């Protein structure tokens, strides 16, 4: 069994491609996997998101809008997780697709479409997204990001639970191309090479104890 912590920008199409590639890899190799999608937003992830959308990172108005949208999407995802982690992941990926692949505006119509497509209750999510529970949950996610030394999105940390004494694999570089095929090929090569047969791990950042990061 693997345990995967995937740190993502909730409105990033590149993150969506990475999410899909890792899920496809574990399904292809029939690896039982527990996923933790963790929203990550800081100056670096906002800059990356603005560049992805074609905005100048010096544009204060666009930066404020981008920051507000990313934070709002993170709150929606955290509220959705109250109705089940799998449905919440489906909602997150649906929202990323609606905004960045289909180029729909990040507005109530798009949000409602993503929620309905994921089998979630719209009214409950909208009521919960500003709750204290969601606020505290997002704070815990930010703390977890700091504990794992996560500085960019996407970042994946993969643990092989069959041998928990091994450090986790941290992947921060998924290739320069935004093509789903190129990202999938890159992830497949890294995971097939590093996890099953060797004890050499990707990236110099080493994550030692899995139990420390479980919530």
Question: What does the model show?
Answer:
The protein has 215 residues and is α+β, with helices and mostly antiparallel strands. It has a single domain (2-213), classed as 3-Layer(aba) Sandwich (Glutaredoxin), CATH 3.40.30.10. Helix content is 54%, strand content 11%. The protein has helices at residues 13-28, 43-52, 60-80, 85-101, 108-117, 122-128, 132-147, 180-194, 210-213, and strands at residues 2-8, 33-39, 155-160, 169-171. A four-stranded mixed sheet has the order 2-1-3-4, sandwiched between helices. Helix 1 (13-28) packs across helix 4 (85-101), helix 2 (43-52) crosses helix 3 and helix 4 (85-101) crosses helix 5 (108-117). The longest helix has 21 residues, at 60-80. The two termini are 17 Å apart. 36% of the residues are buried. Mean pLDDT is 86; it is low at 196-210.
Spatial arrangement of strands, main beta sheet = 2-1-3-4
Distance between the termini: 17 Å
- Mean pLDDT metric: 86
Number of domains: 1
Oligomer: single chain
CATH superfamily grouping = Glutaredoxin
Number of strands: 4
Question: Which CATH architecture is right?
Answer: 3-Layer(aba) Sandwich
The fraction of residues in strands falls at: 5-15%
Number of helices: 9
Computed CA radius of gyration, to the nearest angstrom? 17 Å
The class by helix and strand makeup works out as alpha+beta
Major beta sheet summary: 4 strands, mixed
What string, H for helix and E for strand, traces the elements in order? EHEHHHHHHEEHH
State the CATH topology.
Glutaredoxin
Are there runs of 5+ residues with pLDDT below 50, and where? 196-210
CATH class: Alpha Beta
Query: What sort of overall outline do the alpha carbons produce when their principal axes are compared?
Result: globular
Helix content: 40-55%
């Amino acid at each position: 069994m693997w345990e995967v912590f995937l740190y993502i920008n909730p409105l990033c199409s590149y993150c969506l491609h990475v999410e899909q590639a890792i899920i496809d890899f574990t399904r292809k190799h029939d690896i039982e996997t527990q996923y933790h999608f963790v929203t990550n937003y800081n100056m670096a992830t906002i800059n990356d998101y603005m560049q992805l959308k074609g905005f100048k990172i010096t544009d204060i108005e666009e930066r404020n809008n981008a920051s507000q949208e990313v934070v709002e999407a993170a709150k929606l995802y955290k509220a959705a997780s109250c109705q089940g982690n799998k449905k919440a992941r489906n909602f997150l990926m649906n929202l990323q697709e609606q905004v960045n692949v289909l180029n729909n505006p990040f507005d109530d119509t798009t949000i409602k479409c993503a929620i309905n497509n994921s089998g979630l209750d719209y009214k409950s999510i909208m009521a919960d997204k500003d709750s204290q529970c969601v606020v505290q949950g997002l704070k815990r996610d930010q703390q977890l990001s700091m504990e794992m030394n996560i500085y960019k999105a996407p970042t994946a940390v993969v643990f092989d639970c069959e041998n928990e004494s091994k450090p986790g694999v941290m992947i921060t570089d998924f290739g320069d191309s935004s093509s789903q095929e190129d990202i999938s090929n890159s992830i497949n090569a890294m995971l097939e090479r590093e996890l099953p047969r060797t004890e050499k791990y990707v990236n110099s950042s080493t994550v030692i104890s899995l139990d420390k990061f479980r919530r």
